[in-house]
Amino acid sequence: MRRRFVTPGAGLILAFLLVAPLGAEIFEQVLVKVNGEIITKSEFEQRQVAELRNRPELANVSPASPQLRTAINEITPDLILTFVDELLLIQRGRELGYAMGDEQFNSILSGIKKQNNLEDDQKFQAALKQEGMTLPDLRRNLERNMLVSQVQRVEVNDKISVNEEEARAYYAAHPRDFTTPSELTLRELLIEVPTSDRGVNVAQDDEAKAKAEDLRKRLMNGEPFARLAADFSASASKTNGGLIGPINHDELDPRLQKILDAVKVGDVAEPLRTQRGYQLLKVETRTEARVKTFEQARAEISGKVAETKRQTELLKYLDQLREQATVTWRNDDLKKAYEVALEKRRKQPALASAQPSRP
Predict the structure, then answer these.
(1) CA-wise closest residue to 29 among 262, 331, 321
(2) How many CA atoms lie within 13 A of 174 on its CB side?
(3) Residue 279 pLDDT > 80
(4) Gap between the Cα atoms of 246 and 137, Å rounded
(5) pLDDT of res. 5
(6) What is the pTM for the complete model shown?
(7) Residues 284 and 187 sit within 8 Å (Cβ to Cβ)
(8) 7-33 b/e with 16+ CB inside 10 Å = b?
(9) pLDDT tens digits for 193-225?
């Protein structure tokens, strides 16, 4: 059990939901029945509140805030789809005979107490109370999560395999996934060119350029870059000897890439005119790009391909459970939200709705 703390606006959020979440008039209104098992208004509101707590920008909003209503409308479709999917998986787990025995529950409970430093029973009971839960509530949540995980593992995950052809096709199609880009460590020294409302004085610009060129000669003759940077640089990096990086080569401006590619390690590039003045860059270190071979990346590839297949197969499995289920809606607005989320998923499949909730 992870200990959660109520944000300052959680009470306002709950108050808003109780007043006008789904056009309901009765707190324990049944929103939907899935194979005869109900999802109540209060159960769904608890999930809405939990999700809204993750949005710090809502901490101090008022119950009548349009911002709060917008946030609720945004999260509701995915939340109700998640809830129904979870219920379908839980029901399937029960059909398959899965259940959480006392020994398993006590083992998990012991781990929760130890992980959260709640081995003292009074502290544990206080933590449960803070969460608005009882021990039976906790056991119910843990069992629900176990059923969801067990069904996914047995009915989907254990049936997935990755063959050689699939692995090689993925490797060929995703070369960047297995490439460690070149990195550079640089030192910089900036000679600033003064500016005014009239722009840049040509004489001052020429003077700064000449100073940069002279410093480059001194650097190429072996004077310490860190010392000259500390004495002459207008850049904040002067306090670190001008050191910057490591920098991903691919993230540099293409024009700068071309310049630095021509500079050997230990050398200093010609002065570069920047917005602030003339910059000297020394290539301190350079690592070349490295590409993993297929054999080196085999385990990583198998994991990536298996995860993609798992997501696809899980969504297919949920669709099968949904087709076989009897779903009776008691709230038209929530039904529309559910259908919106389901249509969105079918266009852009995602696994989020199949993840179990956490106690």
Answers:
(1) 331
(2) 15
(3) yes
(4) 51
(5) 33
(6) 0.67
(7) yes
(8) bebbebbbebbeeebbebeeeebbbbb
(9) 888 777 778 888 888 999 999 999 999 998 999
Rounded to an integer, what is the distance from CA 66 to the centroid of its chain?
27
Long-range contacts, 68-76 (Cβ 8 Å, 24+)? 68/12, 68/13, 68/16, 69/16, 72/16, 72/17, 72/21, 72/48, 75/48, 75/51, 76/48, 76/334, 76/337
